[in-house]
Structure formats: C-alpha cells, structure tokens
Amino acid sequence: MEFVDPDTVKDWIGKETGVSKWFLIDQNRINQFADVTEDFQFIHVDPEQAKLTPFGGTIAHGFLTMALLSPMTIGSVLMFKGMKMALNYGFEKVRFLTPVASGKRVRGRFTLKSVQRQPSGQMRVEYVVRVEIEGEEKPALIAEWISMVIL
User: Is the model's pTM score more than 0.85?
Assistant: First the structure.
C-alpha cells in the first residue's frame, strides 16, 4: 500500500481505504476462541445442541468476529508517511447484526470516517468497518473503530 501524507489524509474521508482477505470461521477456530475466553456457551461449542436452535448449528462468538478486525486491517487501512506505529484507541460504536455460522468466511471493508490531529502530534483516525459474511447480504458487524497514529 502507498503511504499517505498526513497533511492530505482529509482527502480520504468518506472513502473506502480497503477490503481485507477472507477469514474462515470454522469450528476449530470457534473452539479455540472459547478456550481462550472461557466462553463455552453451547451455541458456540456444541454442534448437536446448536442444531436445535433457530441458527441450525454453531455460530461464532461476536467477540471472535470483532477480534479478527486487527488482522483485517493489513492492507485495508491507510499507512502514513513518518508513521512509527498505530495503537488501538477504542470504539465509538459496535453492533453485531448477523451471527456468523461455523464454516462461513468473513472479511472487513474499511472506510475512513475522520482524522483529527492531536496537540501531541499524534493523529486520531476513525474508520467505519463492516464485517461481511460471504454469500450474505447483511453484515456480521459494523463498528466505528478509533486508532491513535504516532508520527
């Protein structure tokens, strides 16, 4: 990806900056996430019981989908000239709209929402990210995600 001059980044506001690769959400990934977070709700880890729900099978944890935002940024967000690093600063809003069924693939679509220069010389950069589910119309997640870029 081309490095953007921090002085011209405002030209990107409202524009899509990138789309990530697809990530497979299989039962193994869901189980590993359950192990790490100690969230063993049956809808995630018990395929037999989950078949009896309206979802018809296991679904990913919403926080698993959200955790994949970090690797989804690779090649999908702006990189700035003179940038030393970017830090996760938080979220203004996160909505889990559609459960991700085991076996589906997801990807992130990033749009620059705002950029604010800070007195410290840092930049507060906010993206709207939609996590799409392959073959489905409604996204899994929509978030307004904030990073602090250290120049």
Answer: yes
